[in-house]
Amino acid sequence: MILASGDAPPLRLEQLQRAFARLVPAGSVATAGAEPLELIPVGDPAVLGQFEPMEPAGSAARDISGEPAEGFAAFLDGTQRTEVVGHTVEGEAVLLGTVGAVIRSWHNRRAATWKYRRSQRIYAPVGVLPADLQAALRGLPLPVVDTVDGGELEDAHPHARRDVALRAVRRMRESLEVELLTDWVAEERRPLYVDGGLSASLLFPRAANAVGVVKSHHTLYADRDSRRTVLALQGGQRGPVFLVGRQRGAPLASWYLRLRSAAAHDPFWGLVRVEVPHDAERSLSALTTHADEISRRVLAERAPTAHPDARWHTMAYGIRDCEVFLRAGQ
Is the dihedral of CA 203, 209, 210, 215 positive or negative? Predict the structure, then answer.
C-alpha cells in the first residue's frame, strides 16, 4: 500500500525517525549517520536456527551482577585471508589462502602467546587446466588445492570455483582453531574464551573450560515469543538457556547476553550468544547458576574496550589482542 503521494515533498530520515519515536515509544531509533543497507556487505543468509528450551522460553531477563569467581585465563581466535595471485587465460583465479590461529594467555594484565598455528595453500582449478600449467602450479613452494571440487565443477563459472576456495580456506582456519582448542583442553583446566561458537569442536563435549562467544547473528535461535525477551535485553542481562546442536549428537547449552545497552542502536548491538558444552547431569537450578557465572566472566571482559575496532561493543579486548597478533604474522 502506498501511503504518500508521489507529488509530496520527500521526507528526511530524521523527520520519520521523530514520528517513529512518538508512535512506537518502546522501539529504538537507528544511530545517526548509519550507512544505507545497499552499502553493507551481504554475508551468510539470515535464518532461524533449531533450538530446545531448557529454562522456560518466556522467562524474564536475568540481571547479572557481581564479580566472577574466576576470570578467563586465555583467548582463542583465528584469521583467514584469501588473495588473488593471478588469472589464467581462461579467467580462472589462482588464489593464495593464508590462515592462522592463536591462544594468548593473560597474567598480571600481560599477554603472551600460548600456542600459534599458521598455514598457507594455493587454490586453483587444477583439474581443468592444461598439463603444463598444472605442472607449473605444482612447482610453486606451497601445497596446491584443486577447486574443481571432485569433478562437479569441471564446466562452471570461474566465480563458482572461487567460492569453493573461500569455503576451503574457512575450513582450514577452523581446523587450526580446533587443534588449539584440543591442546588447551588436554593441557589446561583454566577458562578459555573462544571467539565464535563451539560448533566446530563438538567432538569435545567434555571441554568444560571452553566458552564460545558469538558476535554475529545470521542464525537466530529464538521463536516469535522468545525474540521479544532476547531483543529487549538491557545491558548486563541474559536470556533463557537453550540447547543447540542436538541433531549432531553433542548439544551445547547457549543463551543470549547483552553486554551494553542498545539504546539508539540496532537491536542486535551489544548482543552476543554464549555457548558452553552441555552437561546432561546438571540440574535446571545448577544450569541457571552455571549460566549466570559464565555470564559474569563474559561481562567482566567489557573493560578495557576493544577500541578502535568497529566491533568493540561485542568484542573482548583479549580477542582484539589476538587479532592484532595474527595480523602482524600475516
Answer: positive
Distance CA 309, CA 80 (A): 17
DSSP strand E in 169-246: where?
A: 192-195, 210-214, 219-220, 237-238, 242-244
- What b-and-e string marks burial along 197-229, b requiring 16 or more CB atoms within 10 Å of the CB? bbbbbbebbebebbbbbbbebebbbbeeebbeb
The span from the CA of 205 to the CA of 242, in Å, is 16
Q: Report the alpha-carbon distance of residue 265 to residue 30 in Å, rounded.
A: 5
The DSSP code for 140 is S
The dihedral formed by the CA atoms of 172, 177, 179 and 181, expressed in degrees to the nearest 10: -160
pTM confidence score: 0.87
For the segment 79-124, what is each residue's pLDDT rounded down to a tens digit?
999 998 888 777 788 889 999 999 999 998 899 999 999 999 989 8
What's the mean per-residue pLDDT of the chain?
Answer: 86
Let me know the angle formed at the C-alpha of 161 by 159 and 166, rounded to the nearest 5 degrees. Answer: 90
In angstroms, the CA 69 to CA 293 distance is 7
pLDDT in tens, 247-289: 666 789 999 999 999 887 889 999 999 999 988 889 999 999 9
Contact between residue 158 and residue 42 where contact means Cβ atoms under 8 Å apart:
no
Burial (CB count within 10 angstroms: exposed 0-12, middle 13-18, buried 19+), residue 19: exposed
Query: What band does 26 get if pLDDT is binned at 50, 70 and 90?
Result: low
CA-CA distances (angstroms) from residue 26 to 16, 262, 267, 322? 16, 12, 12, 38
CA geometry: angle 263, 313, 307, nearest 5 deg: 130
How far, in Å, CA of 229 to CA of 256, rounded? 10
